[in-house]
Amino acid sequence: MSPRARDGSIEGGAFLLAGFADEAADSALGQARVTTSLGWKWLEARNVEGLNAHDLGEREFEAFRAALENAGIGVCCLGSSIANWGKSVDEDFAASLATANRAAARMKALGTKLVRIMSYAILLDAAGDPLPDQKKRQRFERLRELCGVFAAEGMTPVHENCFNYGGMGVERSLELLSEVPGLKLVFDTGNPALTPDFSWPGPRPRPSQDPWKSWLALRDHVAHIHIKDGWRDPLTGAETYVYPGEGPSRIRDILEDCLARGYSGWLSIEPHMAVVYHDSSVSSPAAAREAVYLEYGKRLEAMLRSLGCEIRDGIALRDSPAGKPAARESAAVDNVASHEGLIARHQAPAAFENAAPHENAATRRSFTVDRLRVRVYADRATLGVAAAADCAAAIRKVLAQKERCRMVFAAAPSQNEFLAGLAKARGIDWSRVEAFHMDEYAGLASGDSRRFGEFLRKALFSKLAFGRVEYLWPATAAGDQAGERGSGAEEEAKRYAALLAGGPIDIVCMGVGENGHIAFNDPRNADFADPLAVKEVALDPECRLQQVHDGCFPSLEEVPETALTLTVPTLMSGRELFCVVPGPTKAAAMRRMLKGEVSPECPATALRGHPACTLYLDENSAKGIP
Questions:
Q1: Which of 55, 110, 234, 285 sits between 20 and 30 A of 608, alpha carbons compared?
Q2: β-pair type (184-188, 315-317)
Q3: Where in the chain is the domain with CATH 3.20.20.150?
Q4: For residues 577 and 608, is the Cβ–Cβ distance under 8 A?
């Protein structure tokens, strides 16, 4: 697989697959379902029950957002109606600004930074020819102000080459880019062949625009791509839409050129075959809409595979030819690399594991440190709810892809709110979930409430019908009755390691200790290249003292001195990691973890290299961190 370049781009090209799922279903749940059915992680938000997402009422919008969040679906772009082909440049501009401000707020809630806009309707005479005066100055002034709304929020408006001023031809698109700072392009592969060439000097009817020539002229400014194929009859204006590759839109050539140039960004399907939003005469039954959408997505995937792409988790990736780095020429490279939390990082041998959990309105701030995503919340209760929702969505996604989800849990009071939220999660078949825990004291009696296994049994395992729960059983206290489980540390480590080796670990739910440890990998015994999966360790004094601070033991003397722990490589082998760290006693450790060097001196720094780890902090644990 291709390595990541130093600038954050992906050498060799990568496509993140998405689509206008409102063409498959009107409802939020239907759109989430069809996206999941394709195995994709994103959709392009447009209409829900006939209304654009930026025009929904608050209750309806929250239901839409929650449906996507619960399904683990992200939003790649908001397909707004701002300045679209149906809106006059003379319309009430206050209404346009209000829409833009609503759209920006909704984009924050959905966690996307791309918004599709247009440049108002073409002014035509009675014969269908463009008027000489297209009110360019007024258009540009309005578009500059509209785009400024999004730029102020760190968002990117992308102009679509549809039947609007900028879509009249490549010259108009380039003119817009020169006149409107911060504007980039979304290139719809089908629109050139569906739009007259208004620069045509010959006799009428005008031919359609040339898709390949349009792409070559605009590709350096493209930050997003819509996949559509079809054509218009120049004589009648009738439009025909087909599956990708069956029409004149040159989709295969465009995608091959993208890969050769190192494009990294979303491909968003917009079939228009079963339903067309600008033509009410084109409609189909619900089942047909969904079937067409699914087939469209599958055919796009087949085309990408024929171009040498490997597709995993809704991401198509192709290596650079002969080890030669691909040119970094597309605007999409900068654009996508800057979209925090929406692109999973590359890790050998499996490229592009999981997309980031969604940010939501409760997130105070977010940032990344190396590959680690960090979310900060007001308090530990809000943190716990958010982390539980993200983890639950990840479980659902795993179970949608395979029969079993294998998870590892941490046991500590810091996990209380998170575990309580997870226990309330809906829509999870827990009988298909296998649970392990990451560490256990040696020397405590089997029924001792201070054992980590007992903590998890009371907090989670006894509340849900897990398909399988495997406990660590290191040597127990003297005096246990015959027949109680418990064995020597080395034997138990081997036994548990064999259980863990029964399949990949999908999800790890963890915390970080006051001394920066993860599980019981303290600074003096952590090994980032540990050959063991499970091992016995002697606990640091600071680690043991934390157990007193947490109220687990009344005094340091009563805290066991040894334990079994999953090693750092075992924890890091999890496909997705959720790290929950609230409270003021963790603030110093968080500063070392996020600001210090990656080193076993602070074992938690290892998480900065994981491709799909999210760290959840509250304002107390984040104190002193920008």
A1: 110
A2: unpaired
A3: 14-124+137-337
A4: no
CATH number of the domain located at residue range(s) 391-618 in this protein? 3.40.50.1360
Q: How far apart are CA 266 and CA 43, in angstroms?
A: 10
Structural tokens at position 503 = 């399949």
The backbone torsions φ and ψ at residue 200, rounded to the nearest 5 degrees and listed phi first, read -65, 120
Residue-wise pLDDT for 227-273, tens only, equals 999 988 877 788 889 899 988 999 999 999 999 888 889 999 999 98
Q: Kindly report, residue by residue over 166-184, the tens digit of the pLDDT.
A: 999 999 999 999 999 999 9
The CATH superfamily label for domain 14-124+137-337 reads Divalent-metal-dependent TIM barrel enzymes (3.20.20.150)
Task: Answer yes or no: are the C-beta atoms of 294 and 37 closer than 8 Å.
Answer: yes
Residues of the chain with CATH 3.40.50.1360: 391-618
User: Residues 6 or more apart from 591 whose CB is under 8 A from it?
Assistant: 624, 625
User: Do the strands 613-618 and 576-581 form a parallel or antiparallel pair, or are they unpaired?
Assistant: parallel
451, 476 Cβ separation under 8 angstroms = no
Backbone angles phi, psi at 195, to 5 degrees: -125, 135
Closest CA to 470 of 407, 563, 416, 521: 407
Region label for 519, one of left (φ > 0), alpha (ψ between -120 and 50) or beta (otherwise): left
Q: Cα separations (Å) of 623 from 143, 364, 582, 614?
A: 41, 13, 11, 18
How long, in residues, is the chain?
626
Helix residue ranges, H only, 128-169: 136-151
Mark 496-516 as b/e (b = at least 16 C-beta within 10 Å): bbebbeeeebbbbbbbbbbbb
Instruction: Please state, in angstroms and rounded to a whole number, the distance separating the CA atoms of residues 57 and 80.
Output: 15
Which pLDDT value is given to residue 330?
Answer: 42
